[in-house]
Amino acid sequence: MTTQKEDAAFPLARNAVATRYENLSPETVEITKRSILDTVGVILGATGMSKPSKTVVDLVKEGGGNPESSIFGFGGKVPSWMAAYANGAMAQALDYDDVYDEGRNHNSGGTLPAIFAIAERIGNVSGKEFITAAALGIDITARMSISVCESKQGFEDDWFLTPLFGAYGSTLGAGKLLGLNVEQMVDALGIVLNQAAGSMEMSFQPSAQVRELYSAFPGFNGVMSALWAQRGLTGVRNSLESRAGLFKMYFKGHYDRDRLLDRIGERFEGTLTSFKPWPSCRLSQCHVDAAYNLATKHDIKPENISKIIVHICDSTKTLMEPAQDRRRPKFATHAKRSIPYTISVILARRKLMIGDFNEAALKDSSVLRLVDKVDMVYDQSLFTPGIPPAVVDIITNNGTKYTWRTEHAYGHPANPLSREGLIEKFYDCLSYSVKKFNKTASQKLSKTFMNLEDVDNISKVIRMLV
Question: To bridge 242 with a disulfide, which of 74, 220, 226, 238 should be the other Cys (CB 3.0-4.6 Å)?
Fold first, then answer.
């Protein structure tokens, strides 16, 4: 007789309850702090650059409620679940938040807003406690996504993994700070099963503004699920692997259980986080990296470029088609998912910044002239389950051909963005914030986050953001 395996919700819950700051490796602590810094930076940058996010914030403030947790940048306090909702809406608005390349997931943007909101609701949460909750939330989000992406059948690009699995990261992280026991944590994971969702269709229709805002949903759902469980409400017990559990219902049972639970509590998947150097879709960034290296290594001037050839596969083809939308993007969300536009900006300016996606920048003739020189070659051998490598050719006016292949996008652990580079990105994000930060304030804030283990109360840090 076959013995029924224990549902994965139980070991995940036990690990979350048992884990202490002292169990985290120095590498896990360091990368978690970088994720926290990076997420706060992109949220603050979005306060001044994302009109849809401002609409969400206004709506949240209109609803009012118990003043528990802060809205970053704009200020004001609302119920914790609504603060997670508002800050989450801004976490992905710039398409600049960190990403788990192999798992096709934005772990931090879908997880950290909930943990911030609960920390402020509780009060007196130390930096070490916050880092621990963040590391756990990011870890489960990453584990769930990689278990799907590395299944034998692969990932079909239908569910949007960030809001779907971010709901679990938010629930686990919030539950950790709330001090849930194992039974309550299992209940919380069973409650959020009824709320976790997210369709990839929003990426296929980039004019839909929900594409900027989808990280609002996991934070709200995670906070509510953890609070329900804290109040004694019960959820589905076998929520992940039962006949109508998450993996069966959402993925037809196509997931790698061993990858989900491998060395849980010993290895934290957050250490494999990639940090974006450019504010665009991660699928575009190997091409941007290749174009940047061609321009800088060979000193190729824009006026000397005759033709640009990008090599693409199935997963990157969507960033080249439909051709008119990619060559003449009308919205920032179009442009961020356009390989022709992003590589043309990097070739024209040797940088790609937040401001390169505003309305005026999208009409820059110096960039559009290069866009019209972009062509593609289809090469399915480039395909990988995560972020595929990129090959870019540049042919100059005198007929010389230069080629560059990028295996891992800049910011990936194998091609890392330095700590100093990440802090410079943080400063740049703050320069777009509706709340103004002078140089001293920006440096103090970055130093505080990079030494977060020394903070006695995370609420003191949050007050610096509003």
Answer: 238
Handedness of CA 226, 116, 40, 138 (dihedral sign): negative
Q: What angle do the packed helices 80-91 and 112-122 form, to 10 degrees?
A: 150
Q: What whole-number distance in Å separates Cα of residue 412 and Cα of residue 389?
A: 12
User: Is position 424 within any domain?
Assistant: no
Which two three-digit tokens encode residue 428? Answer: 């740049």
Same domain (yes/no): 176, 245: yes
**φ, ψ for residue 95, nearest 5 deg:** 55, 45
Q: Quote the tokens at residue 324.
A: 């008119």
Q: Say if residue 193 is in the same domain as residue 92.
A: yes
Judge contact between 256 and 240, C-beta under 8 A: no
Mean pLDDT by 10 residues, the chain (466 residues): 76 98 98 98 97 96 97 98 98 95 93 98 98 98 95 81 96 98 98 92 78 92 98 96 95 95 96 97 96 97 98 93 90 92 98 94 96 96 90 98 96 95 97 97 98 98 97
Q: How far apart are CA 108 and CA 87, in angstroms?
A: 12
Strand ordering across the sheet containing 390-396: 374-378, 305-312, 390-396, 401-406
Tell me the two tokens of residue 401: 């051909």
In a domain, 294, yes or no: yes
Instruction: Check residue 2 and give its pLDDT.
Output: 41
Which segments of 231-277 does DSSP mark as H helices, in order?
246-251, 257-261
Alpha carbon of residue 111 to chain centroid: 9
CA dihedral for 213, 174, 30, 385, sign (positive or negative): negative
Secondary structure letter of residue 237 according to DSSP: S
What does the alpha-carbon distance between residue 115 and residue 36 come to, in Å, rounded to a whole number? 10
Separation between Cα atoms, residue 357 and residue 232, nearest integer Å: 47
pTM for the full model? Answer: 0.95
Distance in angstroms (rounded) separating the CA atoms of residues 158 and 250: 10
Specify the pairing of strand 69-70 against strand 77-78.
antiparallel
Largest CA distance in the chain: 74
255: amino acid identity, one letter? Y
Look-up of token digits 């013995």: 3
Do 300 and 361 belong together in one domain?
yes
Q: State which H helix or E strand residue 63 sits in.
A: helix 51-63
d(CA 8, CA 24): 22
Distance of CA 168 to CAs 92, 114, 171, Å? 17, 11, 5
- Distance (Å, whole) CA 222 – CA 168: 7
DSSP 8-state code for residue 156 = -
Distance between CA atoms of 246 and 383, rounded to whole angstroms?
A: 27
- Whether 414 is in a domain gets the answer no
Amino acid present at 76:
G
